[in-house]
Amino acid sequence: MRRDRYIYKVLTPDQWADFQARSIFTGSPVDIADGYIHMSCASQLKETLDKWYADQAEIVLLRIEASAVEADLKYEISRGGAEFPHLFADLPRSAVKQVWLVSPDAAVYRLPDDLTAN
Predict the structure, then answer these.
(1) What is the pLDDT of residues 37-90, one digit of tens each?
(2) How many CB atoms lie within 10 A of CB 15?
(3) Cα(20)–Cα(104) distance, rounded to whole angstroms?
(4) Is 47 helix (H, G, I), strand (E, B) or coil?
(5) What pTM did the predictor assign?
(6) Which of 2, 6, 12, 36 sits CB 3.0–4.6 Å from 86 for a disulfide?
(7) 73-77 and 83-87 as β-strands: parallel, antiparallel, unpaired?
(8) 3-state DSSP call for residue 103?
(9) What value, to the nearest 5°, has the Cα angle with vertex 40 and ends 78 and 14?
(10) Distance between CA atoms of residues 64 and 52, nearest Å
(11) For residue 87, which of 9, 4, 33, 18 has the smallest C-alpha distance?
(12) CATH topology of domain 6-102
C-alpha cells in the first residue's frame, strides 16, 4: 500500500479563515457527516477539484505532512476503487506545510506548478 509524504485538503476561503483563527480544523459539513476529514493524494487532487469544487470561485489547497497525522490517518477505498487518505481526528495547523489559493479556469482547475516539489 502506497503512502505519500504529503496529502492534500481542499477548503473554501471561509473554512480556511476559521482554521487560521482556531489553529485547528474539525472538518467541513461533509467531513463531519462522514465522521472523518476527506483528503487526497497528489495524484487524486485534480479530479477531486474538478468534481467537487468547480463551482467555487477560489479554493484554498493545503499540503499536509502525512507523518504529522499518521496516527489518525487511514487509507480507504473510495472513488473509482482508489485508496484515499481519511483523517479520523481534527487537523492541527502545525501539520500544514504549504498553502495555495487556487481558482478554476473555465471550471477546470490547474494545479500549482510546485505541487509535486518535495
Answers:
(1) 999 999 898 888 888 888 888 999 999 999 999 999 999 988 788 899 999 999
(2) 18
(3) 23
(4) helix
(5) 0.86
(6) 36
(7) antiparallel
(8) coil
(9) 115
(10) 19
(11) 9
(12) ADP-ribosylation fold (3.20.170)
- 31 against 80, higher pLDDT: 31
Using a 10 angstrom Cβ sphere, with 0-12 exposed, 13-18 middle and 19 or more buried, the burial of residue 23 is: exposed
Distance between CA atoms of residues 50 and 3, nearest Å: 23
What is the H or E stretch that residue 59 is in?
strand 59-65
| Spans of all domains in the chain | 6-102
C-alpha dihedral (16, 48, 111, 14), degrees to nearest 10 = -20
For cell 477539484, what's the residue? 49
Amino acid at 22: R
| Residue carrying C-alpha cell 490517518 | 73
The span from the CA of 57 to the CA of 55, in Å, is: 7
